[in-house]
Amino acid sequence: MNIFRNSYTSKIVVAALVVFSSCSDDFLEEVTYGEISPSEMTNAGNVDRAIIAAYSSLNGQYDASSSAFNSPASNWSFGDVVSDDAYKGGGGTGDQNNIHLMEIYNTNPTIIDIERKWVALYEGVKRTNEAMRLLQSSEDYDASLKERRMGELYFLRGHYYFELKKIYNTIPYIDETAATVNDYAVSHTQYTSEQLWDKIEENFNNAYERLPVDQEDVGRPNKMTAKAYLAKTYIFQGQWQAALDAANEVINSNKYSLLPNFRDVFLPENDNSSEIIFAVQHSVLDGAPDNYNGSIGDRLSAPGGPFYSQYGFHRPSQNLINAYKTNANGMPVLDNVNLAEADFKDPRLDHTVGRPGIPYLDLGVLYEASWARDLSTYGPFAPKKRIVSANSPYQIDTWPYISALNYYIIRYADLLLWKAEALVELGDLEGARTVVNQVRERARDSQYVMNLEETAPAANYRIETYSTPWTDQASAREAVRTERRLELALEGHRFFDLVRWGVAAETINKYLEVEKTRRTHLTNANFIEGTHEYFPVPQKYFDVLESMK
After folding, report:
1. Mapping DSSP to helix (H, G, I), strand (E, B) and coil, where does residue 123 land?
2. Per residue, what are the HEC states of 214-261?
3. Residue closest to 46 by CA, chosen among 120, 123, 133
4. What are phi and psi of 266, to 5 degrees?
5. What distance in Å separates the CA atoms of residue 123 and residue 292, rounded to the nearest whole number?
6. Model pTM?
7. 278: enclosing H helix or E strand
8. 10-residue block means of pLDDT along the chain (549 residues)?
9. What contacts 24+ positions apart, CB below 8 Å, involve 483-488?
């Protein structure tokens, strides 16, 4: 497994630490000195521990509470359940009702997930800022490593702020000059949206300038990791030429490539493969209490049945299933008519979701509708792409039922599709077609899910590349966006894509119009344009600001 893993075993309590709520109800709380005296804080070993603590926040957790799954790094509730890709699932609408409220767009700033995600990300910001301060003050830290570690910290801070920006939009920005609790009590409207993007870009540019081409430890960002994240920031702003240039630099570095087999991307033994540009590092059986360093934020996705706990959340929507239908030429069919057994299917479908009658991973059994918790409410489908086989040593089949599979923040297919998107917007439609076909070729040439006897494909799979030249920009744009959905489904990206494309209200309300006839739990769902594209800033944040006046 990975050399460099997230770990709280080396966590320290640092001087002048300012946190946005941990065990208390306040978002701003001053923490007293802990295990290490202030005079020792800038020792090289303690600085390294502070840097590791900054990495530890990547998994979305900052405590061992039962609410740890309410701030998942994978954004399955923030990116999938609130899109057209997935339902909440679980034991009905009352089970984790806070996520159900998000699913029907009845969001309010007191929902625990909305509060906790904010807290978790600002915990990452706080730890990163403090590690920067300590590193800059350290006199005995290895000079040859100091700039590299600063690059890593700039990268981490850029990531935490990117996540905050895409989820909440208007956010307070605090850098390493913050030294007291009051320094963190700033307005979320202090900067314009453009100014916030500039600051996020500045973090990644600073990281790019300081990071090496290669790192000894997997899990630490390198120069191309920072450039790839810059491409992502440009994509989210519609800065197409800048995005294209950044993506090309990463591609031309030859550091990354698509794995030949689609399913292999999601095997824990490959989770730092050539396809992974940056990932949250997970581990199990590493001595952490309750395997805390595993994918605890995704624990509720366990599909049930004879091999897994029946949490049954993060359930694929019928709309997503239907999106994988193809025609006789292997091209997408976007009619949203329920997929039938005889229909041609994109082979990525049965690597992505569990469907009745199709083998589930390498368990030697067919997935059955009876595995699904609350079948009548959420239907028969289950997540599969990011579920680790119960036969794998990287899957824990006892409490807390988690795996060591990393969460991929950026993978190479993602970057390729950003490039295709930029090419479409810049008018190079044929260039975009070539890039999209790279992704489709991998899907076509991958090993398909086979029947239990391993004698034939498990379903009627058919996928081909786009052979006809692209001459219409609108059609090319739709093709790229469709490919992103098919390739990246249930990886936490869909809702944020819809928002940045400016089609969230149109797409989701069209989805709901039909899906309400299939799933009654969505009866009261209503997406309001201009309101539901971003989550509300938590009420506790305002309460604390008011109390400090």
Report:
1. helix
2. CCCCCCCCCHHHHHHHHHHHHHHHCCHHHHHHHHHHHHHCCCCCCCCC
3. 133
4. -110, 25
5. 17
6. 0.93
7. strand 276-280
8. 32 27 39 54 92 95 78 96 98 96 95 95 96 94 95 98 98 93 88 98 98 95 98 98 98 98 97 97 89 90 94 97 98 97 98 98 97 97 97 89 95 98 98 98 98 97 98 98 98 98 98 97 97 95 80
9. 483/417, 483/420, 483/436, 483/439, 483/440, 484/417, 484/421, 485/85, 485/320, 485/323, 486/323, 486/324, 486/332, 486/346, 486/348, 486/443, 487/348, 487/413, 487/417, 487/439, 487/443, 488/413, 488/414, 488/417
Amino acid at 499: V
Rounded CA separation 119/71 (Å):
9
In the numeric block, which tokens belong to residue 445?
Answer: 């040439």
Residue that is written with structure tokens 């969505």 in the block: 522
Longest dimension (CA), the chain: 71
Q: Which helix (H) or strand (E) holds 481?
A: helix 473-488
Q: Determine the residue type at 462.
A: R
Q: Which of 497, 503, 530, 508 is nearest to 235 (CA)?
A: 497
Identity of the residue numbered 414? D
Amino acid in position 383: P
- Two tokens, residue 280: 């949250």
Burial class (CB in 10 A: 0-12, 13-18, 19+), 207: buried
Structure token pair of residue 141? 């830290």
Which residues 6+ apart lie within 8 Å of 405 measured at CB?
266, 267, 268, 271, 282, 295, 386, 388, 394
CB 320 within 8 A of CB 489: yes
> What does the block give as tokens for 313?
């959340």
Contact 409, 461 (CB under 8 A): no
Alpha helices in 57-84 (DSSP H): none
Q: What six digits make up the tokens of 29?
A: 């709380």
Sequence-distant (6+) residues with CB within 8 A of 214 are 222
